[in-house]
Task: structure prediction
Amino acid sequence: MANTASSFSGLVKRPLGNGEALKEPRKPKIESRSLCFYYGDAQALHDISMVIPERAVTALIGPSGCGKSTFLRTLNRMNDIIEGTRHTGEILLDGQDIYDSDVDVVALRKQVGMVFQKSTPFPKSIFDNVAYGPRVAGLKDKEKLASIVESSLKRAALWKEVQTRMHESAMALSGGQQQRLCIARALATDPQVLLMDEPASALDPASTARIEDLIFELKENYTIVIVTHNMQQAARVSDFTAFFLKGSLIEIGDTEQIFTNPREKQTQDYITGRFG
Amino acid sequence: MANTASSFSGLVKRPLGNGEALKEPRKPKIESRSLCFYYGDAQALHDISMVIPERAVTALIGPSGCGKSTFLRTLNRMNDIIEGTRHTGEILLDGQDIYDSDVDVVALRKQVGMVFQKSTPFPKSIFDNVAYGPRVAGLKDKEKLASIVESSLKRAALWKEVQTRMHESAMALSGGQQQRLCIARALATDPQVLLMDEPASALDPASTARIEDLIFELKENYTIVIVTHNMQQAARVSDFTAFFLKGSLIEIGDTEQIFTNPREKQTQDYITGRFG
Amino acid sequence: EPQGKSTSESGSTTGGSGTAAAPVKGFVPEGAIAPSPETIKSGTYKPLSRPLFLYVNKAVLKKPEAIAFLEYYFSPEGRALVGESGYVELDDADYDAQVKLLDDAIKAAGGKASETLNGQVLVDGSSTVAPITTAVAEEFSKLHANVRVPVGTSGTGGGFKKFCSGEIDICDASRGIKDSEKELCQKAGIEYLEMKVGIDGLTIVVNPKADWIAGITVEELKKIWNPESKVQKWSDINPAYPNAAIKLFGPDTDSGTFEYFTEEICGKKGASRSDYQQSGDDNFLVTGVAGDEHALGYFGFAYYIENQGKLKALSVAP
Amino acid sequence: MTEPIQNSPEVAAAPAVPAPATNVSLTKGKKENRLFEWTCRGAVWFSVAILLVLLVSVTKNAVGWLDWQFLSSFDSARFPQKAGILAGVLGTGWVIGLTILFAVPIGVGAAVYLEEYAANNWLNRIIRVNLSNLAGVPSIVYGILGLTVFVRMFGLFGPHGYIHKWTGWTIEGFFWSEHFGQYLIPLPFGRVVLSGALTLTLLILPVIIIASQEALRAIPPTLRHASLALGATRWQTIRHQVLPAAVPGIMTGVILAISRAIGETAPLVMLGAMTFVYFAPGNLDSLSDLSSHPEGLIKAPFDTFTVMPIQIFNWVRQSKEEFKYVAAAGIVVLLAILLVLNGLAILIRNRYSKHLRW
Amino acid sequence: MIESLLFLCALVSIATTLGIVVVMLSESVFSLTGGKAFFQEISPWEFFGSTKWSPQFADKHFGVLPLLCGTILVAGIAAVTGLPIGMLAAIYLSEYAAPKVRRMVKPFLEILAGIPTVVYGYFALEFITPYVLRPFFQGMLGFDVDGFNALSAGLVVGIMIIPMVCSLSEDALRAVPRSLREAGYALGSTKYDVCVRVVVPAATSGIIASFLLAISRAIGETMAVVIAAGQSPVITLNPLKSIQTMTAFMVNISLGDTPAGSIEYKSLYAVGLTLFCITLLMNVLSQWWMHRFREVYQ
Ligand SMILES: Nc1ncnc2c1ncn2[C@@H]1O[C@H](COP(=O)(O)OP(=O)(O)OP(=O)(O)O)[C@@H](O)[C@H]1O
Ligand SMILES: Nc1ncnc2c1ncn2[C@@H]1O[C@H](COP(=O)(O)OP(=O)(O)OP(=O)(O)O)[C@@H](O)[C@H]1O
Ligand SMILES: [Mg+2]
Ligand SMILES: [Mg+2]
Ligand SMILES: O=P([O-])([O-])[O-]
Result:
């Protein structure tokens, strides 16, 4: 059955950003150590240890309910909001445990931005959406705000489309535009890490392509972790891929390797569509 | 890129039921002729003409929103329920137009059963769920009901698991069991055609496998039309595959041929994960 | 402090105990008479004592339940209830005359009492008379459980309007029937019987805290209540009184009390200033005066008797 | 505009976890946070405190007055010690009973029509918009409606009514069944139980319809589709699937509407229910009365009545001090009934929301 | 068959509305039963223009402005007290309170809504005026406080609308999708930021709709006002004075059970019509807001 898996090697793979070679060793940005996570009594993550390298795209794949989103949300402590959750183990961001008691969650989340599966624009104007992050951080200077909004929208490849309608409601944008708006909004807080939970699952092929392009560009400056159900997408955009199953990390490695020559049988079965 | 597509040929393909050869000509069960369908002013189906052969599994594939469900639902006139819909063209069931004014919708739906994407057990006992169809058809005889229920559950491969708890609530079943219950419920009305809209999309791999087995068995007696997002599933269970795109039927043919050697470029792109 | 029932078992105030209140502080004009059962009965409390009436549709004197009710009303028990309700009973001569009047009318109508009574007797009208009638109805219902006597309180005028259109059987009235009302009754073909039930003294009340006043003259009342009245403050009546706004409370225009008062004090029926708190519900007026140091109001004697603790009655000088 | 902000080098250089600068703004945020939370919390506890003050002061006044005698006797205009709420309880029972009888089938029927059948045409749109408007009409306006339509019937009937004036006929009512002896149903109804019940029916209908609509809407369409796909007719689907599943929601709505109706005073005051009443509708004040004069069951709807809130209103404005305590006792009885009903609604809501998950 | 039966049920609501309109108009604008209607005797000009209301006196005046003024005064006071408290309570329940607290408090507040308004009226008359208003305004500030006054009535009506505002606003707040809150937090907001900048603005339409409904309720509130606000139709903005509202007038008339046909009786309908129109306007406004509110997320 190896031949089936290897067939993915034929997919067009874009060169890595800045012409870097894939094998070059990367500096770790985030590291999880023996992380277990519980919703009440139900354990959702089992002993996850992995390294997420800096300025690269790491894809999390696995069947539904395997804990991808849960893991992603531990990275910026979004799970704190849910009652009755707890964890053991550590998550280090640049070497510091983000679950330390003296860590300010609010500040952490400014550094670790997040884009959700369903786009979640605030029912405000486009400008106010993007300006939200800087504003809650206390920025009042109008010019500065405007410049941050503009540059964020530009980086999210949305500026041209919305330039003339900055004060219209964000709800009037198309699905793909809304998703890019959310990315711009996350960029406006100037994070170092961007977590994306199936950012293109609700989008049409054209919008999906644009978001993928965007991820590809962003990884020059950001560390990106992306959850996706779409094997092809993972293959296209990521540098590294982690395969989760039932709350455990089965395998992590170079995307190329995972798709062409997985170490684990389960990974192979999943990728070749044996289940899921 | 042909090599990518052809890689699917490597998938295990089960032999067709009764050892029939795939190429053998089949009797058409359902035929749609120049079918157009509109939600209000929006056209969801464009001029669909296709034949669905008797006692075989026909899979409908295509990206989200392409009209698979819409087409499926025209086959038993479930779309009648939605306000402001209309159609042009014809759908023939055994040669008779089901949209004829003298066709009894209720009787039609008894012949063309349907299983939905999300399992929809009634909040009643398991027995009452399965007995519902025969009951609304006017059957009161308790023994007959019991025997219908039993045989339907057996055919849906659920009998053993629920045998002893027929009068417990159907809501207490697992997702996979619920889905099989819905199939049993559909079988109890003794239909000739079974429409299934992504019957396994919400299920775990084990449940999915059981449902696929079931479909495989059922096709000996029923004409089955199945919508699926999962290419591998389509490849595994279907005899024929129809590819929809933006409301149009792009291509229909033997599953083997569609997955190994599609006539249309769009089909190939879709199957190889170029988009979707 | 909540009071348990048991401790106040004998709680109902009877009319007889009258105005035995502590000596009142405040200015009293010469010749002023305090309202009390004695002064009202003897007529010395002038000009505000007046008779109370019951008007009976003669047609209902055929109904045994109505006969029974009226006979009870004018029985000695019924007579006692008048006093108990805070009014002044008729003197014996007057009372005998009423009983005879009733007997004659019943005979004339040809109605007769019956053993098993049921049905309804509809009563409406004066809120002044209502306490007597409800008391009678309450006692009566204990004897005849199947007879209903719902008692409405629409005011004398309101009562007559219903009475003269045949909507009710008996009308409580705190004044005599007017010519216009007689005409209405005639038109509708309603013959009636006028019966006196007791005597009421219209009482002028102020808040007990109003220690500057204990009596008032008719002249002053007119000055306060006439339609062109300029009186806005107590000091407008008498410079010695406080320089505070006077809050006026009085019955509404459908009431016999209003008509009687305006006629006696202002000289013309219905002639009254209109910028005061008016209500057909005397309890509202009681609450109003009791709740306001600078209030002044008028209503039937019974409502004063019930609330002696909360109100101060002014003596009136003719 | 300005040039894109320089990103990568600075971010990379920035200290990993919380920059001090952000911490400064955070301390400020925390203060606001607390103040705001405490203001909001204060608002809730203020409301709760007021309710407690009300309940405690009422209950305190009711102590010693709320006893079996109070529950089992009729009103007394003169003796607070002898006053009882029986007439009000029975009157409320009759009025509310009839209200339920009228309002529930009509309300649920209307909701089923609007949710399951109604096409999206102008008439149905008007009905929908109109419903929420009706729910906001002051109850006293319903009182006038009831007074004019049910109590007076536009002054058409009766010996002095317009029908008599125009035609010379006198219609005073019509005869009911001969079985229980002749009984005249008066026309116009006058201030009777039936008028009150009809008025309250109109008053709570919008509430019931809207609540039932919500309950029906909460039933997932898939349930209907599943039933229809099995060849059930629309009505079969509603009867066997939709209504049973919606019952908890409908019940909650109905109970809440009923508790509103029980407390309503103004519309009944408008109907003229303020009359001093010391008897039960149809003279049925105990179970044994049901056997001794069963015709009371038919007479009761056409009998004069009072209800609990009106009795309370009457007592509370009595000038005699002790009636205050009587009123308090009445309020406690009324609140107890409301409490039981609300509790029931909550129970149903919780019970079924646990058991039915889609 | 069944469908038409059910349709008839739905028609009852239309019939009710028509009934209300016809009844209100029947004595005020045209007369169903012969005789003159209210506005045939009293010009609308006087009704809406004159500043004196004395329908029950020898010298009759029918200027509804004093009643309107009283109504607005009471509703205004109620709005000023009830709306903010209700909204803040809603925010607390939806954003801060533990589910357990919410489950306890919400039904408790629903009971607050279920207490007969008569009880509130006496609470105002026997408690608020003598023990809260008098000591403060009269004792400390030296203002004259009437025994019946608009303020006490307004305050209890304010208390009465708290549960309504709270419950409807809470629904609106909870209808704000969880994802929006998460988006807020993910951008580094504190809870306060998320509340004030994301959730409340997103629910504005729903909150405003609840406000309008509550005000409409306050305008239509009857018994509490009858008991506590007095019966003197005067134009004043002094909340410590006794006033009369439209509803109080209507009850006053019907407590006396004014006989049909008299001009006072007809004025009941004219005032009722005015009241109906005002609340209708408020309801329509609130509907309109609700409608906008629904559009936001879909
Ligand atoms: N808020 C929650 N409370 C309790 N259990 C939860 C919660 N969220 C997720 N879970 C459970 O935790 C497990 C992992 O969920 P998670 O959302 O991480 O899966 P996932 O891999 O993202 O799946 P999907 O691809 O479907 O989004 C699942 O079993 C899920 O049911
Ligand atoms: N009830 C409806 N009213 C209006 N438009 C609809 C309705 N249902 C579907 N559509 C539209 O019709 C088109 C086809 O929808 P359909 O549900 O058939 O897609 P699908 O192929 O089943 O997609 P998916 O795989 O996501 O289920 C889509 O554009 C959809 O938005
Ligand atoms: Mg997920
Ligand atoms: Mg679909
Ligand atoms: O006695 P009255 O109610 O008519 O004043």
Residues 6 and 261 of chain B are 7 Å apart (CA to CA). The first helix of chain B runs from residue 2 to 6.
